[in-house]
Amino acid sequence: MTNQRVTPEPALRLVGVSKHYGPTAALDGVDLEVRFGEVHGLVGENGAGKSTLLGVLAGAVRPDAGAMWIDGVAYAPAGPADGLARGLATVYQELSLAPHLDAAENVSLGRLPRRGPLLDRAAMERTARAALDRLGAADVPLGVPVGRLSAAQRQLVEIARGLASGARVFVFDEPTSSLGRPEAERLLVLMEELRSDGAAVVFVSHALEEVERVCDRVTVLRDGCNAARFERGDFDDEELVRAMAGRELAAFERTRGTALAEVLLHARRSDGRGQALTVRRGEIVGVAGLVGAGRTELLRAYFGLERDPNWVFEGRAASTPRAHWRGHAGSGGAGLVSEDRAHEGLALERPIDENLCLPRLDRATRGFGWLAPGDLRRRATRWIDALGVRGAHDLRAPIRTLSGGNQQKVAVARLLEADSELLLLDEPTRGVDVGAKAEIYRLVAELAAGRDGAAPRGVLVVSSDLGELLALCDRIAVMVGGVLGAARPADELDEHALLLEATAARPRTRTPA
Ligand SMILES: Nc1ncnc2c1ncn2[C@@H]1O[C@H](COP(=O)(O)OP(=O)(O)OP(=O)(O)O)[C@@H](O)[C@H]1O
């Protein structure tokens, strides 16, 4: 009796969890076990069921079948508050805090301390400060609405909220995908620290090298089912990809393009600071930099989405971008894939096929042609096959029913479908799985080279994924504090060099000494 081994209960146990949406089995009998003191990876292709599983865990999605336990005690949440009450904190990629409340209020939300009839602001600040200090996040301001904080700071507030409520299970939903490299590194270290403190950490990510680095075990989902489970040391990212896809995937390797003489875009700062950026027909140019360096602002200024007297634009595609803004793409001119697909990229309530073919529909309704329903379906199906869009059984279903990564594939496909001369891609593969990433790179490279006898296009890519820029681009410039350095051949650069330049206190000046 005294010799009996005590098996500690797993932090989290799920058995046979299922969730159907009409004919789609988002989850089909999924099992998951996560221990205290481990970081557990959860990976799978776009549409594999990861977000649905997190929704079930957080109490936001009601499963059709299955059972769950937290620390050995049955868990059947009726809503998101139940998770936190049972010590489970979910850190979402999108803002899930109350944006108009500040960090101190968000950390104590649901458990606001009172002194008599009044809120005890001093106690709230003490609690928030203590939790943020534990995270080494003294730089997060307490008195600012969290809607105005950076993505990285908001995540820290969410983790602080979990810590303050005594959470022992932390679930991270693609936490590094909207962060720059330094913030992503900080978050990975934080997850490791939570593990050292004995917490259980679930890490959902498409960044497989990060998964390989920090995870003790990894559960792989495919088509809503368990596909594999790996222990640390038993897998590498190639093995993960094979388990996710159920087949070998061809890696993307680009033969560098040949830039033609024609300048499609020439962007320079009106105050003469830094270098000008030129995109010629036939080439892919990348812009690296930290989050907040001003890269997105450059694209938005070009499109006239924001009044910005800092930038002057010239070149063939410079005169008409605004006219082609509707639907984010158009014939001739330039087209943009926005980094904010939910608000600016897609019409979430409109059908999948309309979202895909919007540029053509736009022209059709303007009297430049007519798109028959059969034609719409054919074009949409072609893209769905080319990019492996999962879950698009019914092309007339609203696009919000697709998983996040599959929505992103549609946003990119739509731009590829338009015949813009200049493509501007802002974080084009955020949330996209490895297989589809390679497919998107291949299609973009083909467009730059001139496919099926079409004229070569020019491409400008903004990305926080340095590997992506190095794989895809002919030349890469780094932006620091709104000022661009010189675009240099990608072959002469590596991630380290780009990161060094991006984190330099001052940008390189026009005339090196
Ligand atoms: N509200 C919904 N209505 C219909 N289908 C849905 C709904 N939510 C999810 N689905 C479907 O369930 C499947 C699983 O989606 P889920 O979002 O869980 O995938 P995921 O693994 O998180 O993908 P991603 O990596 O792209 O975020 C997909 O086929 C998706 O289209």
TrEMBL record:
It comes from the Bacteria. Its EC number is 3.6.3.17. It is an enzyme of class 3 (hydrolase). One of its GO terms (molecular function) is ATP binding. Keywords: ATP-binding, Cell membrane, Hydrolase, Membrane, Nucleotide-binding, Repeat, Sugar transport, Translocase, Transport. This is Galactose/methyl galactoside import ATP-binding protein MglA. Residues 12-248, 255-506 form the ABC transporter domain.
